[in-house]
Specification:
heterodimer; A: 60s Ribosomal Protein L30, Chain: A; 5-stranded mixed beta sheet; 35% strand; B: alpha+beta; Chemotaxis protein chec; 8-stranded antiparallel beta sheet; 8 helices; CheD-like_sf (chain A); chemotaxis (chain A); Cytotoxic_necrot_fac-like_cat (chain A)
Chain lengths: 165, 208
């Protein structure tokens, strides 16, 4: 078991980085997407818990850049660059973006999960970061943990158990 | 979120009353269904950071059974009826005489019964609010999920997400006599709905 203090926790609409040892984790991803970045050479891991696809719809005064796909991904890269990570070495994995409730209606908020996934992919490709694995969609919640030594992403869900990417 | 920073104490009291009336009527409906007295806790109305909302039901990873309704009409919002899986099984047994077959799984029959119970309770919650405020409000058909609380409740926070990192939650717990069945109603009106709710109840939006 890994000591609790080696786990970096990332909340909803939040992002953080971890390095050298331990895990970085976010819990209860539904329509939100957990985007992880990893530098295999420096063993630096980053995770953003993205809630909404685009900051263009934001009506808040002080923008929380960790909340939106288009702002969270560049910010996460910037934070990792500060730790000496070269962007071209980064690889991405992501999970989440499900549709928790099936409705006959198809309002915008109904498709929020898939839209979050699309936006995260776009933000990654704009920065030239390859997406090497993903576990997205479905209708269930996920808790994810990235091991910042191996870069393995563990995905836990109620129905599916534990999956490794 | 400046709109909510300025909510005076008495406005929170008005929202508590909203929770009281809605959940009170739902509790009465449940009490009739069960033919048992149902107690209700004083509603909690608070502006809470997103993280803290899932804490109200035991944390983001806690597995809960939730019946979700989108409220449509003059004052749109999200309504959740949340039970622990154990409480849901007990409720099914009491109400429909359904024998518990599997503790962790819900059969199609159980699923459909829960959805109907949710429908009755949400119907009384919302229609009593609509009567009280003379506003048009209708719940959509129920959607059920048995999953992590964080994943479920996150869905109800999207409208607030565009405005900030916290949401105004009207939380009411009800308890059956011997604490066997305990459930929670979470009403999260859309940010735009508050002005209409206050106007309908004759509360000025601006604090003087």
């Amino acid at each position: 078991m890994i000591d609790e203090h080696l786990i970096v926790k990332v909340g909803m609409a939040d992002l953080n980085v971890a390095h050298t040892e331990g895990l970085i984790r976010t819990t209860g991803l539904g329509s939100c997407v957990g985007v992880t970045l990893f530098d295999p050479k420096l063993k630096v891991a980053g995770l953003a818990h993205v809630m909404l696809p685009s900051s263009e719809i934001a009506r808040e005064g002080a923008l929380n850049i960790a909340k939106y796909a288009d702002t969270a991904v560049p910010e996460l890269v910037r934070r990792m660059n500060e730790l000496g990570v070269v962007t071209s070495r980064l690889v991405a994995k992501m999970a989440g973006g499900s549709q928790m409730f099936a409705f006959s209606g198809s309002g915008d908020s109904m498709r929020i999960g898939p839209r979050n996934v699309e936006s995260c992919k776009l933000a990654l490709s704009e920065l030239g970061i390859p997406l090497i694995a993903e576990d997205t969609g479905g209708n269930y919640g996920r808790t994810i943990e990235l091991d910042c030594v191996t870069g393995i992403l563990f995905i836990r869900s109620v129905q599916m158990g534990i999956k490794e990417l | 979120m400046d709109l909510f920073k300025n909510f005076a104490e008495f406005k929170m009291d008005v929202l508590k009353e909203v929770g009281n009336i809605g959940a009170g009527n739902a509790a009465t409906a449940l009490s009739r269904l069960l033919d048992k007295p149902i107690d209700m806790a004083v509603p909690k109305v608070q502006m809470l950071p997103f993280e803290a909302i899932a804490e109200r039901v035991g944390g983001a990873e806690k597995v809960v059974l939730a019946v979700f309704f989108r409220v449509e009409g003059d004052t749109p919002g999200n309504l959740f009826f949340i039970l622990s899986p154990e409480a849901a099984k007990k409720l099914l047994h009491r109400l429909a005489g359904i024998q518990v077959e599997d503790e962790d799984q819900f059969s199609e029959m159980e699923w459909s019964a829960l959805s109907e119970i949710g429908n009755i309770l949400a119907g009384s919650y919302i229609s009593s609010l609509a009567d009280f405020t003379s506003l048009a409000m209708t719940p959509t058909v129920p959607a059920l999920a048995l999953d992590m609380a964080g994943a479920i409740l996150g869905y109800g926070l999207l409208q607030f997400g565009e405005m900030g990192d916290s949401a105004l939650l009207i939380d009411t717990t009800f308890i059956e006599g011997q604490h066997e069945v305990e459930g929670q109603f979470f009403l999260i009106p859309d940010p735009e709905s508050f002005a209409k709710i206050f106007a309908a109840l004759g509360v000025p939006l601006q604090d003087d």
